[in-house]
Amino acid sequence: MARFEDAYEQYEALVRGFLTRLCGNRHLAEDLTQETFYQAMRHWNDFRGESSLSTWLCTIAKRLYYNECRRAPSLPLREAEARADESDLAQRLIDGDRRVALFSLLHRLQEPYREVFTLRTFGELSHAEIAALFGKSESWARVTYHRARQLLRRMAEEEMSDET
Questions:
Q1: 0.85 exceeded by the pTM?
Q2: How far is CA 127 from CA 24, 88, 104, 146, in A?
Q3: Who has the most CB within 10 Å: 4, 68, 90, 114?
């Protein structure tokens, strides 16, 4: 396993960039990056290597950001899915109470679809960045994201049909 100092040097910019795209606030992203590496250092021996180190770090970062959003309700979750080419499903669900519906669907989505969709939609990471996080090809990231969107769309349609 890599030394913590090496991991910090190698992944600090990636984690900071991920958080900046996720929250849209450079100062908050810098604070959360430091907290991410503090938590990683505290739990360094808990890393089992089931994912890449960068994925583990970004998962810590994402959880810290979501915790921050819950602690400070005035801090909105970034609505990156407003991008025109990828917004159809997310935009329909993101308004008001439907935000809960989106996260409920995401919660039921299996990995790696959940993580790839979250990184692409909310984290605004490119397919190449997602591929690098998972140690896979860019094509894998594109296909996985596309399948995640299809699964979420199907799940949403099933929920809507169940409500009627």
A1: no
A2: 19, 19, 24, 11
A3: 90
Q: Rounded mean pLDDT of 113-139?
A: 83
**pLDDT digits over 38-97, tens only?**
999 898 888 887 777 888 888 899 889 888 877 766 555 543 333 333 444 444 444 445
Asked whether 65 and 51 are in contact (CB, 8 A), the reply is no
Q: Are 16 and 33 in contact, with CB atoms under 8 Å apart?
A: yes
Q: Tokens for 125?
A: 């990471």
Question: Shortest CA distance to 7 belongs to which of 64, 62, 63, 56?
Answer: 56
Q: Give the angle subtended at the CA of 145 by the CAs of 139 and 156, to the nearest 5°.
A: 155
Residue 34 is predicted with a pLDDT of: 92
Cα separations in angstroms, 50 against 4, 37, 126, 135, 161: 17, 19, 23, 12, 37
- Nearest Cα to 51, choosing from 138, 134, 148? 134
Q: What's the confidence (pLDDT) of residue 10?
A: 85
Question: Residue 2 in 3-state DSSP?
Answer: coil
Q: Are 26 and 9 in contact (CB under 8 A)?
A: no
